[in-house]
Amino acid sequence: MKLEDRIAIVTGAGSGIGAASALAFAREGASVLVVDVNEAAAKATVEQIELAGGRAIAAHADVTRAADNQAIVERASAAWGRLDVFLANAGVPQWPADVENVEEEAFDRIMAVNVKGVWLGAKYALPVMKRQGRGVFLVTASTAAIRPRPGLQTYCASKGAVVTLAKALALEVARHGVRVVSIAPVATDTPMLPAFMGKRAADAEARARFVATVPLGRLNRPEDLAAAAVFLASDDASMITGTCVEVDGGRCI
Ligand SMILES: NC(=O)c1ccc[n+]([C@@H]2O[C@H](COP(=O)([O-])OP(=O)(O)OC[C@H]3O[C@@H](n4cnc5c(N)ncnc54)[C@H](O)[C@@H]3O)[C@@H](O)[C@H]2O)c1
Hints:
Blueprint: E1 7-11, H1 16-27, E2 31-36, H2 39-51, E3 55-60, H3 66-80, E4 85-88, H4 104-132, E5 135-140, H5 153-173, E6 178-185, H6 193-196, H7 204-211, H8 222-233, E7 244-247
Parallel strand pairs: 1-2, 1-4, 2-3, 4-5, 5-6, 6-7
This protein binds nicotinamide-adenine-dinucleotide.
Nicotinamide-adenine-dinucleotide binds next to helix 1, helix 4 and helix 6.
């Protein structure tokens, strides 16, 4: 097992990429604090992990709140005595619109969750990892940071910010034996996907339009990102830090 006896926190783990990653971490031997603003969803992920024989605890937290970030780091440390992996994954999408039609409140919300939420996770998790002299802080960014699609300027800017944040943090903590890596998924089959398409549901036409932009000819499955996160969290990736790993079927080429 690649993460035997590791302690992990995954935010936004009640759904999609976060849920698949929490399941994969547990399957690889980690104990996982499953964090989501939707507590029922976090509990459902924990149930799945336990059914598969893994260890997990559900925690309610809004990643935009400093106190909630502090509380989840303390909770993992209190329950299991350490913190080896933090996957800052919680995020919100943007409904496609030209910039003049985006409400200021939408900008503030996207930045609060997608940027401040990651920054707050780092603020509380990295000191613990530095003290341990070991740890991995992962961020779910997006190909939107590298190869934007039209009409998603606010979301793209938020993901660009965390790709650079991850690089800056990687430099800051490298001498403490801590790694920071961002992951850039292309369109992924999760409940978030239809929003990027400006749809309530990802219909065949919209899906085909997105697939046509991915050289490998399919969308991501949440498990594609979970596999990348397991690798990056594991010692197999011990020389990888600061980079942004594109899991995108070639979209960013
Ligand atoms: N689905 C895609 O096409 C895609 C592509 C690239 C990147 N991403 C990124 O992947 C990450 C996961 O998205 P997903 O596709 O699994 O979406 P999802 O909607 O399935 O899951 C997101 C989860 O985050 C939680 N969440 C939202 N705001 C939160 C907050 N303030 N505090 C705590 N939890 C919160 C939600 O309750 C939900 O359970 C996001 O950062 C997203 O931007 C998604």
